[in-house]
């Protein structure tokens, strides 16, 4: 009988499929390695099993031990599956940019989930890396696989994923494309393939803003790929080329592949496919590009596949008059974004409010262009007046007096839809392709509509 003894026996040996509809007009074939067929739904099942196997051999785990790991979700699921089979507890630390489906999924496996802010440096005690390390030190018998520095991570792909790709393509693969996260998949597969044929090109698909493609690691919206530091599991000597992709490119490609190929893929898959198409356009019919699809789109139904979310973040355009037209009509001499840093004083905030005749000012961390995660809150002129008698008020930090951040409206949202939001809040932060671009007020919209009637 062809029956597995355990769900762990189902990890690996994933299929490959040609991408035909999104590659029309491209001579070079693109073949996808579909890692969504792993029992945990992602490529991360492979290193999860390998890292736990290695830890058990070293005596680092015993019955009742707790596995603690920072994860964007997929590694956590893989570890949770192994833990369920082996009798371990799990605690996973995630950033607040991950979709709620991923948090709920890990909880469904019985794991404890701790959510940390995404917009802090790795060494910040609030980061998900630092939080995971602190929990390991606090909990007796805890074990952290540490996918970012554990050599078993890339080794698992060297031993399984790489050989599978080589065999399934009959050694005809010429280019391998995958997202760069921990670097485990990219480097493990890349090392194996280059040992078989040194001419094979290994290309990293990277979100714009990640350190691999020259960014500073500032927050971006695509999940599970890119980094804000250099993991030990990433070996740049194996990488021939790094190509960056914007959030907008990633999300639109994700939706395109899902709708045209019938493959429901995640956002980082869209990043990889977009790069694969860029590379394939430069090649001939005699080449063969293999792109690895790390996970399913089921973990992103509330975001990438949710039209309301995509619209609010400025990735989609409505039909009819849109907010972008209102912004283009403004000519009041006020910069698109006026903001203060969290550590700036109230005095500075008041000065800017008075200089530009604002009712509210944004508090944000970082330089322009800002990311959505860097918006911290707002300072309201009326609220400041109620606190103005407090001792040392003018020298207080903006972070100490700020209120909640403004609600978002997409640059492509229909004006009537924005007006409904403005009935609840007099100003809205306009998002364009996932980034804050301007502030729009009810009076801005009304003025625009009145000018259109003339």
Which tags fit this structure?
Rossmann fold, CBS-domain, globular, 15 helices, 4-stranded parallel β-sheet, 454 residues, 6-stranded mixed β-sheet, alpha/beta
Task: Please give a structural write-up.
- By secondary structure, this protein is of the alpha/beta class.
- The protein folds into three domains: 11-42 and 151-300, Rossmann fold (3-Layer(aba) Sandwich); 45-143, Rossmann fold (3-Layer(aba) Sandwich); 309-453, CBS-domain, CATH 3.10.580.10.
- Helix content is 35%, strand content 17%.
- It is built from 15 helices and 16 strands.
- The protein has helices spanning 45-57, 74-86, 100-108, 128-138, 152-168, 184-196, 247-261, 267-280, 307-312, 323-329, 346-355, 381-387, 398-401, 415-422, 442-453, and strands at residues 16-18, 30-34, 66-70, 89-95, 112-116, 142-143, 175-179, 201-207, 241-245, 289-293, 339-340, 360-364, 375-380, 408-410, 427-432, 435-441.
- The strands form four sheets. The protein has a six-stranded mixed beta sheet. It has a four-stranded parallel beta sheet with strand order 5-4-3-6, sandwiched between helices.
- Helix 3 links the parallel strand 4 and strand 5.
- Helix 1 packs across helix 2 (74-86), helix 5 (152-168) packs across helix 6 (184-196) and helix 7 packs across helix 8 (267-280).
- It is globular.
- The mean pLDDT is 94.
């Amino acid at each position: 009988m062809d029956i597995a003894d355990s769900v762990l026996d189902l990890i690996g040996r994933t299929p490959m499929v040609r991408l035909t509809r999104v590659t029309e007009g491209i001579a070079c074939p693109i073949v996808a390695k579909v890692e969504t067929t792993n029992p945990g739904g992602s490529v991360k099942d492979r290193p999860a099993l390998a890292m736990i196997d290695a830890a058990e051999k070293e005596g680092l785990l015993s019955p009742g031990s707790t596995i603690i790991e920072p994860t964007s979700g997929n590694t956590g699921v893989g570890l949770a599956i192994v833990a369920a089979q082996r009798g371990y507890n799990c605690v996973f630390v995630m950033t607040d940019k991950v979709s709620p489906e991923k948090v709920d999924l890990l909880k469904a496996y019985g794991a404890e989930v701790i959510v940390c802010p995404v917009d802090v440096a790795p060494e910040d005690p609030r980061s998900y890396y630092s939080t995971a390390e602190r929990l390991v030190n606090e909990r007796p018998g805890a074990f952290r696989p540490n996918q970012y520095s554990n050599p078993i991570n890339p080794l698992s792909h060297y031993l399984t994923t790489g050989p599978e790709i080589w065999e399934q393509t009959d050694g005809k693969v010429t280019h391998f494309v995958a997202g760069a996260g921990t670097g485990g998949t990219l480097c493990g597969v890349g090392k194996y393939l280059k040992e078989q044929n040194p001419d094979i090109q290994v290309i990293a698909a990277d979100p714009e803003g990640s350190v691999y493609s020259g960014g500073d690691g500032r927050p971006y919206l695509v999940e599970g790929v890119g980094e804000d530091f250099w993991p030990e599991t990433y070996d740049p000597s194996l990488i021939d080329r790094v190509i960056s992709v914007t959030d907008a490119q990633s999300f639109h490609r994700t939706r395109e592949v899902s709708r045209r190929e019938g493959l429901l893929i995640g956002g980082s898959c869209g990043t990889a496919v977009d790069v694969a198409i860029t590379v394939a356009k430069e090649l001939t019919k005699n080449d063969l590009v293999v792109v690895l699809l790390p996970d399913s789109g089921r973990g992103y139904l509330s975001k990438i596949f949710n039209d309301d979310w995509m619209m609010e973040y400025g990735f989609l355009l409505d039909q009819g008059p849109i907010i972008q037209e209102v912004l283009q009509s403004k000519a009041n001499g006020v910069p698109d974004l006026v903001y203060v840093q969290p550590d700036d004083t109230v005095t500075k905030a008041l000065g800017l409010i008075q200089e530009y005749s604002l009712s509210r000012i944004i508090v944000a961390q970082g330089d322009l262009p800002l990311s959505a995660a860097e918006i911290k809150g707002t300072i309201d002129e009326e609220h400041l007046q109620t606190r103005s008698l407090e001792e040392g008020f003018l020298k207080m930090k903006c972070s100490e007096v700020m209120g909640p951040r403004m609600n978002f409206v997409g640059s492509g949202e229909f004006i009537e839809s924005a007006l409904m939001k403005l009935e609840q809040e007099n100003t809205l932060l306009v998002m364009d392709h996932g980034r804050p671009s301007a502030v729009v007020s009810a009076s801005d919209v009304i003025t625009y509509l009145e000018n259109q009637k003339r």
